[in-house]
Amino acid sequence: MKTSKIMAGISIGVMLFASCKKQEDTPAATTPPVTPVTLTAAVGGSNVSGTYISWSTSGNLKNVNWALANNNSIGFTSTQPVAGTYSLSFTGNQFFSMYYNGKNFSSKTGTVNITQIDTVADKHIKTLKATFSFNTDTVSGVSYSVSNGVINWTE
């Protein structure tokens, strides 16, 4: 009888222990990293800001791209990564490309003043500080004036 009371006591203890809900650790809240705005401009009179998304090289072309709101983007390409003031054109050493409102545009006329541009061993652009303004080519009857552009980017 004494053994059955001990066994009953152990069984009740095991059931109570098993029925207790373990408090699970709550994972710490994570904050996604903030991607800094490194390009600002006015496109057709509307202010836009861009966050860096990629760089690429192809032969002597060095390209840096920024994402704008609404799936738009803007890119800067240089074949001559040296500080200075340059005229922008389709065939120049420095030019901008822009995907805006579903169309691809290129800088037709304008200027870029590069105050700092650095490349690394694989020749991609690592640092770019510049101001710019340009008019795009016309695509399907649409063109844009891009003004007050500022780039302050370091990889």
Structure, described:
By secondary structure, the chain is mainly beta. The protein has one domain (37-154). Helices cover 12% and strands 54% of the residues. It contains 1 helix and 9 strands, in the order αβββββββββ. It has one helix at 2-19; strands spanning 37-43, 46-58, 61-67, 73-78, 84-87, 94-100, 103-119, 125-136, 145-154. Strands 1-2-3-4-6-7-8-9 form an 8-stranded antiparallel barrel. The radius of gyration is 29 Å and the shape is globular. It starts with a helix and ends with a strand. The model is unreliable at 1-18 (pLDDT under 50).
Strand order of the largest sheet: 1-2-3-4-6-7-8-9
User: What is the count of distinct domains?
Assistant: 1
How much helical structure, as a percent, in the residues?
A: 10-25%
| Rg | 29 Å
Shape: globular
Question: Topology as H/E string?
Answer: HEEEEEEEEE
Query: Mind summarizing the main beta sheet?
Result: 8 strands, antiparallel, barrel
How many beta strands in the DSSP annotation?
9
Overall pLDDT level: 82
Could you write a compact summary of the structure shown?
This protein has an eight-stranded antiparallel beta barrel.
Note the topology.
Layout lengths: L1 H18 L17 E7 L2 E13 L2 E7 L5 E6 L5 E4 L6 E7 L2 E17 L5 E12 L8 E10 L1
Antiparallel strand pairs: 1-2, 1-9, 2-3, 3-4, 4-6, 5-7, 6-7, 7-8, 8-9
